[in-house]
Specification:
Layout lengths: L1 E5 L4 H12 L3 E8 L13 E3 L3 H15 L3 E5 L1 H17 L6 H20 L6 E3 L4 E6 L2 E6 L16 H5 L1 E2 L7 H10 L12 E3 L3 H5 L6 E4 L5 E5 L22 E6 L4 E5 L5 E12 L7 E6 L7 E6 L2 E9 L6 E6 L2 E13 L3
Parallel strand pairs: 1-2, 1-5, 2-4, 3-9, 5-8, 10-13
Antiparallel strand pairs: 6-7, 7-19, 10-11, 12-13, 14-17, 14-19, 15-16, 15-18, 16-17, 18-19
Length: 351
Amino acid sequence: MRIAVGLSGGVDSSVVAALLKEQGHEVVGTTMSIWREGRYQGGCGDACFGPHEAEDIASARELCVQLGIPYHVFDCSDAYEKTVLDYFREEYLAGRTPNPCVRCNSSMKFGLLPHLARESGLDFDAFATGHYARVVHCNSRWHLLRGVDEAKDQSYFLYRLTQEQLSGILFPLGEFRKADVRRLASRFGLAVKDKPESQDFYSGDKAELMQTPPRQGNIVDETGRVLGTHQGHWNYTIGQRRGLGVSSTRPLYVIDINACRNEVVLGTVEKLLTKRLLLTDCHWISGTPPKGKVLAKIRSTTRPAPAHFADGELVFTDGVSAAACGQSAVLYEGDEVLGGGVISSILKTST
């Protein structure tokens, strides 16, 4: 089988390439270059988008030399700017919290990259990555499942993949735990076996990505009383507690952002609770929206919680905290990802 592997220069995708080569497949390494030198400064941390990209490409190239497989880099920086970074800015400026990784996966990693690879003349049967998720074919359609390693499961970020995309995708690490992958990297003698993982999509200051001059506004409580000032509402997210620059006898959190007034609203943790969310821009992997009991989560790091879904309305049985408009709510049935949508409205519940 001819397989193109999306290489990031990290341990997971490197193990995928080595594993597939060991299994006897004809493997080719591919990387999308998204960093545009001179436009952003970035930081020193590990992330998908940052000035360390040249080092990551060098690591991927070294891996391919070690494995004896071809390697190709595709310049996707223009498309990444329009598809991911413009979206990131527009959402924050509108007072919402974006999901850049969701957008990048559906449009870039599993869209543009394999398309450019084929357009360049590469011929392959499947496209593989180091994501911790699983794909199975049953009852004439493709199903996306959570990864076996609950702590590493990345299915939340993949809910917008289509049947066509899933039909040509391999997730070889879906059945593995991270510790097993590290051991495989050592067995294969990979130079990246101890490389730290990416922690975010950008390695620098979020304000730099905004490309927007500071604009002073007020930090207020629920009654409108001014508690302090800020330099742009886009520097804050719902549920944020640190870095508010406001003193109080009780812990305060960002409970609302009013983009029109450039205003950040603070309140106590109870004000972050909600049970009911409205979703728009929904995508269902089977093509049919679910109705009734589901499991759902509003961020990748939480466990799916019991909820009821019908006609775009998601109601949690026990409620959730710090839901933010613009973020994704992803629905599950057991381990299967049903799909999800973007949170468009929140009804807060005080307790």
